[in-house]
Amino acid sequence: MGRLVYGARGMQIEIDDRLLAHVQAVMLAKLRRREPFPLSWVEPASDGSGRRVVWVNETLELAFEYAGSRAIELDRDMLEDMTSRANSVAGLNLGDNAHNPKPAAKVSPVS
């Protein structure tokens, strides 16, 4: 599991490396074009469930940390699907990925 580190407070969102690589590609493409969007996910039951939504724009600090050291081959269909959702009013929901059947994300408290 990799991590997306979001914002100045450093909220850490645990995400499978493969999904994280696709999230990174979509997020960076949108941010290069200065297109803000909402990013959401559902917390696993072990963390009390619930849904989180954050606003992503070019002024935020982001870091993508991978558990593995190898570059991940990106799936064009997955990228197109995720980009389409990121461009919608609802934004990019990590749990809506048909290409990723595992639970999408877990937020770690900021230390």
Provide a brief overview of the structure:
The chain has 111 residues and is α+β, with helices and mostly antiparallel strands. The protein has two helices and seven strands.
Write down the Rg: 13 Å
- Biggest sheet overview: 4 strands, antiparallel
Principal-axis shape: globular
Order of SSEs, N→C?
Answer: EEHEEEHEE
Counting DSSP H or I runs of 4 or more residues, the number of helices is 2
Question: How far apart are the termini?
Answer: 19 Å
Structural class: alpha+beta
Q: Which bin fits the share of residues in helices?
A: 10-25%
Report on the structure:
- The structure is a single chain.
- With 111 residues, the protein is an alpha+beta fold.
- Helices cover 24% and strands 29% of the residues.
- The protein has two helices and seven strands, in the order E-E-H-E-E-E-H-E-E.
- Strands 5-1-2-7 form a four-stranded antiparallel beta sheet.
- Strand 3 and strand 4 form a beta hairpin.
- Helix 1 crosses helix 2.
- It is globular and about 35 Å long.
Quick tags:
111 residues; single chain; globular; 3-stranded mixed β-sheet; alpha+beta
What's the SSE blueprint?
Blueprint (H helix, E strand, L loop, with lengths): L1 E5 L4 E5 L1 H16 L4 E6 L8 E6 L5 E4 L10 H11 L5 E2 L11 E4 L3
Parallel strand pairs: 3-6
Antiparallel strand pairs: 1-2, 1-5, 2-7, 3-4
Helix pairs in contact: 1-2
